[in-house]
Design brief:
Elements: E1 2-7, H1 15-29, E2 33-38, H2 56-67, E3 70-76, H3 84-92, H4 95-98, E4 102-109, H5 115-127, E5 131-132, E6 137-140, H6 155-176
Length: 177
């Protein structure tokens, strides 16, 4: 299966991006093709609904998500919501990219968990006609630590990620069928 991952942080050492990369690696090990978009290294211009055409970077992202069988969205939690750069990217996208696709949400928060941003992502996904995975990945406190190879240091988190990805893939395959 082809899976698009959008890492929605504009912070160089973002733990939500680290988790998105880890998730991509786990999915690739499972034989899936990963198209990874990091909004830190591949920023998009501000959404402009009055523009006659989208910039090339936006067309590339839209094509990537449209070609995917499933999507992973990852965000830091800023002030109880998704990051501005991820929201900006999602403003460019819609039903043409997400319609009927399974979407897994990931959040990393400075506190215990990042549930508010995950709930906001659920609403956005519904509005672009994606299908929310019933499980999500939320990082908080000690769970936000990664080793030098990009592996989460917290062992229970690694097993939870594998469990969530198993559910995500099974449901994505059913939607694709």
């Amino acid at each position: 299966m082809r899976i698009a991952i959008i890492a929605g942080s504009n912070h160089r050492k973002s733990t939500s991006t680290q988790m998105a990369r880890y998730v991509g690696e786990r999915l690739a090990i499972g034989g899936h093709t990963i198209d990874f978009w990091d909004l830190y290294s591949q920023p998009l211009p501000f959404y402009d609904p009055d523009a006659d055409t989208d910039p090339e970077s936006v067309r590339q992202l839209a094509n990537s998500v449209a070609a995917a069988d499933a999507v992973v969205l990852s965000t830091p939690e800023y002030h109880g919501s998704v990051s501005g750069v991820l929201k900006n990217a999602l403003d460019y996208l819609g039903g043409d990219q997400f319609d009927g696709k399974m979407v897994l949400s990931i959040s990393s928060a400075g506190g215990a968990v990042g549930v508010s941003s995950l709930q906001h992502l659920q609403v956005i996904v519904r509005n672009v006609h994606g299908v929310n995975c019933p499980e999500w990945i939320s990082l908080g406190s000690e769970q936000r630590r990664f080793d030098d190879e990009g592996m989460p240091v917290h062992p229970p988190l690694r097993s939870r990620v594998d469990r969530v990805l198993n559910t995500f893939i099974k449901l994505a395959e059913k939607l694709r069928a």
